[in-house]
Queue: 2 jobs
Job 1
Amino acid sequence: MRADSPPSKQARPDQRPDHCHVVIITLDNHLSGAVDRARVRFQKSGLPVSIGFHAAADWDKPGTLEATRADIARADIVIVTMLFLDEQIRMIKDALTARREECDAMVCLMSQSDVVKMTRMGDYRMDAPPKGPLGWLKKLRGTSKTGAPNSGAAQLAVLRRLPKLLKFVPGTAQDVRAYFLTLQYWLAGSDDNAFQMIQALVDRYAAGPRKGLRGKAKVEAPQEYPEVGVYHPDLPARMSEHLADLPRQQGAVGTVGLLMLRSYVLGKDANHYDGVIRALEARGLNVIPGFAGGLDQRPTIETLMMRDGVATVDAVINLTGFSLVGGPAFSDAKAAEEILTKLDRPYISAHPVEFQTLQQWGANRQGLLPLESTIMIAI
């Protein structure tokens, strides 16, 4: 009598011929937690999708740059964001160039123009001259005019509107729409949006033996969150659009406004914000921790920290690590000066130790790293 065959073991996702490997390369680690949780969701779903995450800020650590380049070389879908420093771009540009035509899709967002032009999604290539509706991409470019009122808010409004319009335009416009949607997922990088961003790209661009992954799961539209709002660890949902929802202390000795990045709040990487909030509250101060959807903090100040053109806070602390208006890619010092003059209150730009631990900072005679000095001070 023939013995029964041993039960076959289910192949790991990265061992299956239809396995799709998605690689994300970005500036820092603030969305690494959301990506880790997306990775777990794919594992539980049984879909053969794996995710590699690499932060450019880590490339000075032994082996990290080599690991990034190796992951690019085997990636099926590549997502690149927030690469705007020449030194970092030089480290991987040749690897991206070598993989661009071989991978299923390469999506480059919010980076130096030479990087963004490497985008290739279906029939759409960012380095090709834009035609027809593809020319609408230009609407997302920031204005070079100093002091322009809330150009960031205008760009975000265009970003939300264009995918709805492009939905009805056939052909390559659908790849442009996928580009805008990817940008929406990333800018509102919650756990759900990180997972759906990857699912959406796999569903549309998986090719070759991976093409069978298309249509395997329902793709949800980007989840929307307040463009301007408040954050507090004691709020039921940790964020709100309403100033009145913040906890208040009776007999407070003053009120301090905090400027924060929404991406850290959505990515559940807000322990540093919590520490500052608790420390100020322990000193008898009311705190207004506010955020904006982009890197222009004027809406946060005008909406949450002023009333009828007059400040309602006694001081403002900027915890974003970026300039008040514009962020790393475009800084508008004149516009920042105008809003601070209007605010007329003490303003502190607190430089977070973004890319090193406090222990490393304390042991380093240089203090801030060159990358931190570039982003937080020079720009």
Note: The chain has two domains: 14-213, 228-378.
Job 2
Amino acid sequence: MLIETRYFGEVEVEGNEVITFEQGLPGFVDEKKFVIIPFADEETPLSILQSTGTPSLAFVIANPFMFYKDYEFTIPEGVLGQLKIKDEKEVAVFVILTVEDPFENTTANLKAPIVLKVEERVGKQVVLNDDNYHTKHKLIQEPLSAIKGES
């Protein structure tokens, strides 16, 4: 099917690529169908979570474990049941980013990860009851100049 996207114009997606969020996303309860589109190429850790019905509704997402090695949480029992998750191998986790200029000011929402049951293409954004996580964690922990070895 052909969908209009916020960042890429018209994009062809297969029906089996659509992810269903039965309850929508917080703040977007009527938006239930999304696709994940790689941001630039297969090498980037960033992707776009794009609504299939509303072209302007798209979120930059990332796998949090690539940036936060100590990030961990327990999926609430209700979510395990709702998504019919039996094993952690069935799950992919993403967090929504707030992209800033310069990019090193970009933040990640570790308080409300997106949990996907990969094979069934169903998901839910889970708000964690963990005071260690909030909605604006710096994505890049060090200045880019330090990472690149510049002085």
Note: The chain is about 5% helix and 30% strand.
